[in-house]
Amino acid sequence: MAGGPIKPVGDTPHQLFDLPSDLMRIPVLALKSRAVAALLGAGLALTVGVPGASADDYHPSALPNTVVIGSAASPHCLEIADWGTADGASARQWSCTGGANQSWRFSGGSLVNVNSGKCLEIADWGTANGASARQWSCTGGANQKWLWTHIPGTGYTLRNVNSGKCLDTPGNTNGVRIQQWDCWNGDNQIWYGFAVGSGPAPVDY
């Protein structure tokens, strides 16, 4: 399997994540059973919940290892389509593989794709519902910044700093393009993370 060795998040959270201890750590029982089965089938490690987590926003600092981001609505993960490395390549959901195009690291509040070294952004600084998510050379702009908000008992929303809208998947099949939408905390806006591999990719600034 691509993406390198799997590292369970629960063992050494402060070494793996330079974040508050409850970020990226959610109750496994809250996840949809089919999503859990798919992730375990792919050999990816799920996280363990932290009691008493609050609904706070986090602006993650740089991580020493990579993270795969799964949807709570379906057994799919956030990836850059077709292993694209060019500016403008679409963000979509696909069956979780742990590949480098599904692996992300935090850098200054941005999500950097390990395969391309480019940042996840909302296209053209869009603020409307339905504006698409894509990758682009990292600029540090607000449309490339994301706030993680813990939703107790479920997971996290990813809110775009520029638009204030949440990363959203409008379907539950392979290939669905990721967009932003008004935050309403539905399963299609809930995401969870787990560590995979080690060592950061270079950032394409």
TrEMBL record:
UniProt keyword DNA-binding, yes or no: no
What Pfam families does this protein's entry cite?
RicinB_lectin_2
Molecular function GO terms recorded: carbohydrate binding
Q: Which CDD domains match?
A: beta-trefoil_Ricin-like
| Record keywords | Lectin
The record ties this protein, via Gene3D superfamilies, to: 2.80.10.50
Would the keyword Kinase turn up in this protein's UniProt record? no
Please give the PROSITE patterns that the UniProt record associates with this protein. RICIN_B_LECTIN
Family annotation (InterPro entries): Ricin_B-like_lectins, Ricin_B_lectin
The UniProt record lists the Ricin B lectin domain at 64-194
Recorded protein name is Ricin-type beta-trefoil lectin protein
Q: What is the lineage of its organism?
A: Bacteria, Bacillati, Actinomycetota, Actinomycetes, Kitasatosporales
